[in-house]
Amino acid sequence: MENDQKTANSQFSTLHSPLQKNVVAEKSKQFAVRIIRFYKYLCSEQKEFVLSKQILRSGTSIGANVRESRNAQSKADFISKMSIALKEADETAYWLELLKESETIDQKQFKSLYDDVEELIRLLTTIIKTAKSNS
What we know:
Blueprint: H1 2-11, H2 23-44, H3 51-69, H4 75-101, H5 107-133
């Protein structure tokens, strides 16, 4: 367990270092802020209160789990947190698809957010695969 912790800490030091840029943490936090604004828009302009809460929950959870992974107790814990973030990103993509297909949002609104969540999915998938291959 102690060696696993040291390995996790050394391999994922970029997640802990304030001097190094953590792209996925920054992008997931920026995405969460966009989702909060989008939620406000859905409630006030579209009067959509059910799916908006779902997308608020899943869209902000991505960054929360990425942030939590910084304090992972082991490599397995790190992979678990990142996997949860990936699941939340995929769920957010689903809610966006429903909002578009139900004509609650237009193509432009959809594409902007969808492109961002797809980028997060790609980043998280790469991080998880790399962490697993370094076992």
